[in-house]
Design brief:
The complex is a heterotrimer. By secondary structure, chain B is mainly α. Chain B has 25 helices and 2 strands. The chains are: A alpha+beta, B mainly alpha, C mainly alpha.
Chain lengths: ~550, ~625, ~100
């Protein structure tokens, strides 16, 4: 029976199996290695598409869930406080809903395209593909995991392959970039772990009456946390007279502490100004196929985390800080956009433009309404596709011209019309042209925030204008104008490069023309959660 | 009965399909491929004519349909189309001009090796423009509004290897985007203030025209002004007019189609479509009228001193669009649409004529032309008709529409009437200058000018005929057009006075031009010798470009540089400092690390002992 | 007399002797031997607890078997490393090794 197939585990494990297979292949056969990696990236893509097609919106994603106990540790019990037994267990719990499914789709698409784009990798293929597939597993795990500890582990799993992928296969400043990446993200992970521990220790348990007292069952389960945090009487069945001061109460201060820690943890990943400098270096120094994943998916893990844990677990905190978040978003938008206008290096333009675009996502989250949240997710998906496409092109351009300095490029539309056409399309998508996916996300985010913060939104909208300035300045600088002599002879995209470009362009157009394909899906994953959210944020 | 209106969605689909086919085929499509674009536009034209015919026969009701575009919560954003008299009129204008320009381009672009791309872009433009026209709500309209902007950008930059074309394309996109932001914010405002978050035009009409008070006057004014900002950007009104003259770097057929007849008129169309909002806010109406009148005279004066044939026509377009805005501002939507209608034909005619001239003599400077009337007969007389229509000489089309605007202005704001009349005089003068310098006198360069091929002259002839007859749909003696457009019988009829004055002004301008530039009765440097400063000011377009550069571009760039330094040294510097201090501390500690295993073990042992003592001590304390 | 205490004392003495050896001896082979001594002290503890502990069970004795296995493996690897080092350096004097610093 198809219902009994653990499809989520298949998605999660396929790249891992691929990595093992790659390990068995001889290291000189780059072709074999590439095809293996590609096939094991395409399997999750196919599975995700199947998931997308068969996802039952009404069921809220409960149709797809896998739950096994993974670790179970009995804790010291203290009978004097009326506790019969205490158990700490971590579960292997995977599930999808309207928020994670778009992210899964994005991950599978971008990583397949990045696997194809890895033709530019020129050394140590075997290790590259092993790390690449490991990174993929980590990303799927992040979006699938429903247990805080599991989430944390997968979040960490993405760091290590990334560190090596940047540090070994990057450009000239690769080692420093890799270090910076690890330091920042390690800091973020520490904050996240601390926040998770606070949450688990204070709210991550269920209590049941048993023979000798209460039976406390601690776990990292997201569902338990959500239930306890959203239910004002979550501890009602515990009798304080019997249990005494267990320290089980999640006080307001602790909630704030957890919220700020989560904001720092995911803010580094998103990244929020002033935590963005690591990401500029990664954009500049990492190999383009890895930046596709980095900019396309890894940054979105921050968004996903902030929505999943920040918005849904601690809505009251988010509510009182929505203005702060919106201001940070506007700073991100304008700061990134203005800096993108003066960069001399194309990859840095794109890096700052990512800062700017992620600011729009923050605005969507800060809006605290459904339009904005959908906008935030939509914008994440769309930005993932667009920046993946842009860095795909950057990779091809660098391979041909050996440079990404804007001053050294120009007039490429004459010698490489296909690449230039795709670059122009991607640029237009990036500046939010309607009919391409970028517009929908931006529009929904602004629309959502405008309901609560009019002036701030109006200032943020200026970012769209600057986006036009920096995109046109850089893209036209590369493709338009008189061509330089040494660039006249270069060849247009090969078939293997053209396929992912066309696929991504087609997706960007599809999402721009017919957004319902994604919004309907998010919608149904959202509503149940959202009702609670608005209700509690209000109270 | 609505037979054809139900298929109105097909009108934009044909050209867009042609775009898709041509882009997919790439450069391989060759010259035959270009006919795909022309054929698609022809199909659209036929369907549009059917729809318009159906509406003129008077039996059809307004037809609209919409599709679910995306759903958020219980709010649905839809995409839809609507066929009314106004939209069917625009359909005909757009498809007709687009078809003629397509035909013309078959000749004009013959030698360009990217001809299929050109026709592809033109197909996309036509489709988007038709979508804009048909849209039944503001959001859909905004989507197409941006798309026409991007097509304009692509076509202005069609000859991408020219640095001027690159700069012009960039400028066109960015400057119009300023206006687009206004429109976007207006949509955001409407979305949150309208009952049920409705954005469709019929609900807008209901709310603003019939249930005044649902939305506060202050908000209404904001909405109207922000919509108008969008119109200002698109229609090249002061102060966002700077992109339009530069956009003349594009191929001339494009200037005729996009920057004269259709896209730039979208601003006027937008205001006409949301006219109820404007009418609910007197302040907004005043602004529209004043900006329109000022732009009309401002651009006309610049047109007097330019030497590039296309730039003269561009400033003339800005000026005429100013007239339309003036008409809207004084409350006469039919007059504005009427002028839009006639202007589309005679300005497209003038641009295509200019293209024919450029095709023949390979220069755009009117000082290097002259005596072309003998060599290019068809071009000359069709251009002459266009010029007369633009100058407002009876009985050509431009006379009637300009007359309608001036009449409306006189009713509301006599001072604006005076401004409009003076601008009309300048218009006649610069057109006379242009015509006589180009077509009469002796040739001023030795090019072998020749008449253009038939595929280029036929559209000229068709447009010339239209420039003569299009005006008769609405004269002071016959109010059919306004009545059909608004469904309103009580349309004011013009006074004889305005007719006489406007005809006299036009004739005076042409006569003066003839005296100066053809007969030579008045010396040409009569003004420039006495007021060189004024002429220099006009030649440099009032230094607006330079002013903007100083005011916006430079400070933004400087701010960017400052922030870049800030990002490098402060934001990243703090991180570097933190990183380096950690490294320093680590280096200090590294001295302890001798590499001797046994030393390590001893250290571990000492640590263990201390730990044990500490625990034991705590117990006994 | 409490049997457990005497076993534990013996184990502690053994452990300390081992530790002393690890820290002071120059010859790497003797260091390895001292480590074995420490491991066996631990084994002694495990067995003692499994017999005289609060909850006597076989687990401790089984665990000591594990420890022995691991100790054997460790000794094998350790001696192998030593041989490798000796080939490179012609010395088994621990004082001369500061590879960990590099």
């Amino acid at each position: 029976m198809i219902e009994n197939i653990p499809i989520l585990s298949f998605i999660l494990l396929a790249p891992l199996v691929g990595a093992l297979l790659v390990l068995l292949l001889p290291k000189q056969r780059s072709g074999w290695l590439r095809i293996t990696a590609l096939v094991f990236s395409l399997i999750p893509l196919a599975l995700c598409l199947w998931l997308f097609a068969s996802y039952q919106p009404g069921a809220g994603g409960t149709a797809f869930t896998e739950h096994y106990t993974w670790l179970s540790i009995p804790l010291n019990k203290d009978a004097s406080q009326g506790i019969a037994s205490m158990l700490l267990h971590f579960d292997y719990h995977l599930a999808v809903d309207g928020i994670s499914l778009p992210m899964l789709l994005l991950t599978s698409i971008v990583s397949s395209m990045a696997a194809m784009a890895s033709v530019h990798i020129r050394k140590r293929w075997k290790m590259y593909y092993v790390l690449f597939l490991l990174l993929e597993t980590g990303m799927y795990g992040v979006f699938l995991a429903r247990d805080l500890i599991l989430f944390f582990i997968f979040f960490e799993i993405t760091l290590i392959p990334m560190f090596f992928l940047i540090g070994i296969w990057g450009y000239f400043g690769r080692e420093k970039a890799a270090n910076r990446f690890l330091v920042y993200n390690g800091l973020g992970s520490a904050a996240m772990l601390l926040a998770f521990l606070i949450l688990i220790a204070t709210a991550g348990f269920t209590a049941a009456q048993a023979a000798g007292g209460y039976q406390l069952d601690f776990s990292g389960s997201y569902d338990v946390l959500l239930k306890n945090l959203s239910d004002p009487n979550a501890y009602a069945n515990l009798d304080p007279a019997k249990t005494g001061d267990l320290g089980l109460h999640l006080s307001n201060n602790l909630k704030w502490g957890a919220f700020v820690l989560l904001l720092i943890a995911f803010g580094i990943k998103i990244p929020i100004f002033p935590f963005h400098t690591w990401m500029l270096r990664v954009h500049k120094e990492a190999p383009p196929s890895i930046v596709m994943i980095h900019s396309g998916v890894l940054l979105k893990m921050g968004v996903y985390g902030l929505i999943r844990f920040g918005a849904f677990l601690l809505p009251a905190q988010l509510h009182s800080w929505s203005t702060v978040l919106a201001v940070l978003g506007v700073i991100n938008i304008l700061y990134g956009a203005i800096l993108a206008c003066v960069q001399k290096e194309f990859k840095l333009v794109l890096a700052y433009s990512s800062v700017s675009h992620m600011g729009i996502v923050l605005l969507g989250i800060a809006s605290l309404n459904e339009i904005g949240l959908q906008g935030a997710i939509y914008q994440s998906v769309s930005h993932g596709l667009i920046s993946a496409l842009l860095f795909l092109i950057v990779g091809s351009l660098y391979e041909r011209t050996g440079t990404t300095e804007l001053d050294d490029l120009g007039g490429l539309a004459k010698s490489v019309p296909f690449l230039s056409g795709i670059l122009l399309t991607a640029g237009l998508a990036s500046l939010g042209l309607p009919g391409l996916s970028g517009f929908v996300g931006e529009f929904l985010s602004f629309l959502g925030l405008f309901g609560s913060m009019k002036w701030l939104t109006a200032v943020g909208v200026l970012g769209i204008l600057f986006a036009a300035v920096y995109v046109l300045r850089s893209v036209l600088g590369i493709t338009f104008g008189p061509i330089q002599d040494r660039l006249t002879e270069i060849k247009d995209a090969r078939f293997v490069e053209a396929v992912p470009m066309i696929a991504l362009t087609a997706l960007i157009i599809l999402l721009g023309v017919y957004p319902s394909i994604l919004t309907d899906l998010m919608q149904h994953g959202f509503t149940g959660l959202l009702e609670q959210f608005t209700q509690r944020a209000g109270g | 009965m609505t037979v054809f209106a139900e298929y109105a969605w097909l009108v934009p689909v044909f050209p867009v399909a042609a775009f898709a086919v041509l882009i997919a085929m790439g450069r391989g499509a060759g010259r035959p491929g270009a006919w795909i674009g022309t054929l698609a536009t022809l199909l659209s034209l036929i369907l549009s004519l059917c729809i318009a015919g159906e509406r003129i026969s008077g039996k059809a009701e307004d037809y609209s349909a919409h599709y679910h575009w995306l759903q958020v919560g219980n709010i649905s954003l839809s995409a839809g189309y609507e066929v009314t008299n106004l939209t069917s009129l625009m359909l005909v204008i757009v498809t007709l001009v687009s078809f003629l320009v397509n035909l013309y381009s078959q000749g004009y672009m013959r030698d360009d090796d990217r001809m299929p791309t050109f026709f592809a872009y033109m197909g996309l433009f036509t489709g988007s423009m038709l979508g804009l026209v048909l849209a039944d709500n503001l959001l859909t309209m905004y989507i197409f509004w941006e798309l026409v902007g991007v097509c304009s950008f692509l076509l202005v930059g069609f000859w991408f290897h020219k640095p001027e074309a690159k700069a012009a394309a960039k400028k066109a996109f960015i400057v119009t985007r300023i206006g687009d932001l206004g429109l976007l914010i207006a949509i955001l405002l409407l979305f949150w203030y309208m009952p049920n978050h409705a954005l469709d035009f019929s609900t807008l009409h209901n709310v603003f025209a019939t249930q005044s008070g649902v939305i506060a006057t202050g908000i209404t004014t904001w909405i109207a002004l922000l919509i108008f900002l969008g119109a200002v950007g698109k229609s090249g009104q002061f102060p966002l007019h700077v992109w339009l003259p530069d956009a003349m770097e594009g191929p001339t057929p494009i200037s005729a189609l996009i920057h004269a007849a259709t896209m730039v008129a979208a601003g006027v169309f937008l205001v006409a479509r949301t006219f109820d909002i404007f009418q609910a806010s007197p302040a907004a109406m005043h602004t529209v009228a004043i900006i329109g009148a000022f732009t009309a005279i401002f651009a006309a004066t610049i047109g007097l001193a330019q030497n590039d044939i296309k730039r003269i026509l561009a400033y003339s377009t800005i000026s005429q669009l100013g007239y339309m805005m003036l008409a809207l501002g004084v409350g006469s939507m039919p007059a504005a649409m009427f002028h839009l209608f006639t202007h589309a034909f005679f300005k497209a005619l003038l641009f295509l004529g200019a293209g024919s001239i450029i095709h023949g003599v390979h220069t755009q400077d009117i000082r290097e032309m002259g005596g072309l009337g003998r060599k290019m007969k068809t071009t000359a007389w069709t251009f002459g008709i266009g010029a007369l229509a633009l100058s407002g000489i009876p009985p050509f089309a431009g006379f009637w529409s300009k007359d309608a605007i001036l009449t409306a202005a006189l009713d509301k704001q006599p001072i604006l009437f005076v401004v409009g009349a003076v601008a009309a005089f300048f218009t006649a003068l610069y057109m006379a200058r242009l015509f006589f310098l180009v077509f009469t006198g002796n040739p001023r360069n030795d090019s072998h000018a020749h008449e253009s091929p038939a595929v280029m002259t036929i559209p000229l002839v068709v447009l010339a005929v239209l420039a003569v007859v299009a005006g008769f749909v609405q004269t002071p003696f016959n109010g059919w057009f306004a009545e059909w457009l608004t469904g309103d019988k009580a349309v004011e009829h013009g006074s004889g006075l305005v007719m006489v004055v406007s005809a006299a002004i036009g004739l005076l301008g042409v006569y003066l031009g003839w005296l100066i530039y053809a007969k030579g009765a008045i010396r040409r440097d009569v003004v420039s010798s006495r007021m060189p400063g004024l002429v220099k000011l006009l030649e440099n377009k009032y230094y607006i470009d330079e002013l903007y550069h100083l005011l916006f571009v430079k400070p933004l760039y400087a701010l960017g540089k400052v922030l870049n330094a800030f990002d490098d040294y402060v934001v990243d510097g703090v991180v570097r400092l933190a990183g380096q201090s950690a490294t320093g501390l680590g280096r200090l500690n590294a001295r302890l690390q001798s590499g001797q295993v046994q030393a390590y073990t001893l250290t571990a042992l000492i640590g263990l002992v201390i730990l044990a003592l500490a625990i034991a001590g705590r117990r006994f304390w | 007399m409490n049997m457990l205490a005497s076993y534990l004392t013996l184990a502690a003495v053994l452990f300390c002797i081992g530790l002393y050896g690890v820290i002071t001896k120059r010859n790497a082979i003797i260091v390895l031997l001292s480590i074995e001594l420490m491991l066996n002290a631990v084994n002694l503890n495990l067995v003692a607890f499994s017999k005289y502990g609060v909850h006597p069970s076989l687990t401790g004795q089984i665990f000591s078997l594990f420890t022995m296995t691991v100790a054997a493996a460790e000794a094998a690897v350790g001696v192998a490393i030593l041989v490798a080092i000796y080939r490179n350096r012609a010395s088994v004097n621990v004082d001369e090794f500061d590879e960990l610093r590099r």
